[in-house]
Design a protein that fits this description.
129 residues, alpha+beta, Alpha-D-Glucose-1,6-Bisphosphate, Chain A, domain 4, seven-stranded antiparallel beta sheet, 29% helix
């Protein structure tokens, strides 16, 4: 098994970053169209019609504003995305663990570069770029 782990920093408060991870309208601006709700057990989908991608998710953990976890099932992958947040001073540290990949293959690398790109999009939403 292979787990992807990435760390990011934002100049925004932890509650603002949490909102970007859990508010469907904001998620649509930087991840994909979705019907996400931060409710444990809630089943939702992330959709990208341009590339005909549907990701099925079920919310596993909601510990506002410090931890969020959900399944990420689409195409060949059946994985779990976990976000952990921590505020230190005026900086929010965001840690992503995307676990459950069979190996460091095309899906793993696609997720690695995909999330790095998506976080840059999130920074644009926050006006940090």
């Amino acid at each position: 098994m292979a787990d992807l782990e990435l760390a990011f920093q934002f100049k925004s408060p932890v509650n603002k970053v949490w909102e970007a991870l859990t508010n469907s309208d904001i998620l649509a601006q930087w991840v994909m169209e979705n019907n996400f709700k931060p409710i444990v057990g809630y089943k939702c989908q992330f959709r990208n019609d341009e590339i005909d991608l549907v990701v099925d998710s079920e919310v596993l953990v909601v510990e506002k504003p410090y931890k969020l976890s959900y399944t990420w099932i689409g195409g060949p992958i059946n994985t779990i995305v976990t976000w952990q947040l921590k505020q230190e001073g005026e900086t929010t540290h965001l840690h992503l663990k995307h676990s459950g990949f069979e190996k460091e293959d095309q899906a793993f690398n696609g997720a690695k570069y995909g999330w790095a790109y998506k976080i840059e999009e999130l920074k644009k939403v926050f006006g940090e770029i």
